[in-house]
Amino acid sequence: MNNYINSTITANNSSIDFEFDKQHIWHPYTSMSHALPAFGVISAKECELTLDDGRQLVDGTSSWWACVHGYSHPTIVNAMQEQLHKLSHVMFGGITHQPAIELSKKLVNMTSDNLTKVFLADSGSIAVEVALKMSLQYWQGRNQPQKQRILTVKCGYHGDTFAAMSVCDPEGGMHTMFGDSVTQHEFVSAPQTQFGQPFDNSELDEMRAKLSSQGNEIAAVILEPVLQGAGGMRFYHPQYLVGLRQLCDEFNVLLILDEIATGFGRTGKLFAYEHATHDGKAVEADILCLGKALTGGYISLAATICSDEVAQGISDSPAGVFMHGPTFMGNPLACSAACASLDLLSRNEWQAQVSNIERQLQSELAEAIEYPQVKDVRVLGAIGVIEMNSSVNTAELQQQFVDLGVWIRPFSNLIYIMPPYVISAEQLTKLTSAMKIVAKSILTCGDQAEFISHG
User: Fold this and answer.
1) Are 409 and 438 in contact (CB under 8 A)?
2) Banded model confidence at residue 386, pLDDT cuts 50, 70, 90
3) Domain assignment present for 1
4) Are 238 and 282 in contact (CB under 8 A)?
5) What CATH number should be reported for the domain holding residue 423?
6) What 8-state DSSP symbol labels residue 198?
7) pLDDT given at position 14
């Protein structure tokens, strides 16, 4: 038996076995031989994480953008507890249950009118995989099996599984090392006009040229609406989506919108595509991917929603059925959490909460643009970003933030927050103050980042 199995690290009265964790457990995007330090969390409530040593940190990330209602919310906890005693899981093949039905009703009612068919997956990456498979199988049912390519924009991120990786940024993205193992798809330049600036219609010229020359081979265009998240926290002009929808219609190509990071209020609209309107109506996707905040961040669940036309095309394909079915598809425990989370959103308190967060972020982060080491400061909805001139040392900054009593996890050259909507003004000020202190403490030298003490 491995000697670590029954060991427990008791220093500082901690019950967390950090040594076992360090030696045996992978963490996201981390080396096993040179692992980034991991902080032990023993509980969380509302907007604070409690560490094993008793320190409390204001959470600025909503646990990777998912816990929009904060932690231990009684509405979601109670719904999950009740469901756990009834039916925690059952296969979805040949069986249905009310939590899945109720959730699907809510999703159909709150998304675009044309989106009527719901596929309940178990993670955001799988939701994207499902969307891509739907688009390919749709064209088989429409007697155009040659449409096998996916078109997207650079600087995007859609997940870590292989099909999802294939539509992530092909040059500077985190998956470039997989080379020819990843299916090669088509890319055009990322949208450049920033949110709130006058839109330059020529931005769509490259997309038009690509669709004009290769539209007969392209099954779908996929992109994140308005916000490119892990690809750089880039806010772009909604008019790009309006023009893209028109191009997809013109060249007979499906439009997939990935709202896994942006859905459920994060950008100030319930869904980010609602920022993009034409003749008073929001842009409609043919396929929509949802996840993260779907359950309020309490348990993994995702959804891929498509139109009647897409569903009919798939049903008309040679297979006659959609060829996908995860083991935990439609998990009733996750569906009950999602229903509770969406019920909280339906109270519409999130609108005032996100608006207040946006105003406070704009006010409190504005001065950071004057720091010589800062390239840009930007805010949209409940998202605040300080972009540095150079990449930062994540481990160094992580420790500085913990010392300041906050949980903020930077990446690349970005210091950003996406706090829970229920955060107080005082807690948000603690986050923005920490962002400015740490950003100001960085001295940039070429491509390297050095740090000075912030006292």
Assistant:
1) no
2) very high
3) no
4) no
5) 3.90.1150.10
6) P
7) 62
CATH code of the domain containing 302:
3.40.640.10
Mean pLDDT of the residues in the chain: 93
pTM: 0.94
Do 27 and 148 fall within a single domain? no
179 is in an annotated binding site: no
Please say if the pLDDT value at position 206 is more than 50.
yes
Name the helix (H) or strand (E) containing 117: strand 115-121
pLDDT at 12 over 90: no
- Catalytic residue positions, numbered: 29, 157, 258, 292
290, 184: one domain: yes
Q: How far is CA 381 from the centre of its chain?
A: 15
Is residue 450 a part of any domain in this protein? no
The closest of 280, 294, 420, 291 to 349, measured between CA atoms, is 420
Beta bridge partners of 386: 377, 415
117 is in an annotated binding site: no
Measured over the CA atoms of residue 329, residue 334, residue 340 and residue 345, the dihedral's sign is negative
In this structure, the number of other CB atoms found within 10 A of the CB of residue 440 comes to 18
**pLDDT digits over 64-86, tens only?**
999 999 999 999 999 999 999 99
Q: Please tell me whether 375 is known to bind a ligand.
A: no
Structure tokens at 298: 């309490």
Residue 80 lies in a domain: no
20-35 per-position pLDDT tens digit: 999 999 999 888 998 8
Q: How far apart are CA 116 and CA 287, in angstroms?
A: 10
Q: Considering 309, 327, 346, which residue would you say is the last residue of a domain?
A: 346
30 labelled as ligand-binding? no
For residue 17, give Cα distances in angstroms to 190, 336, 393. 44, 32, 26
The DSSP bridge partners found for residue 448 are 445
One domain for residues 277 and 287? yes
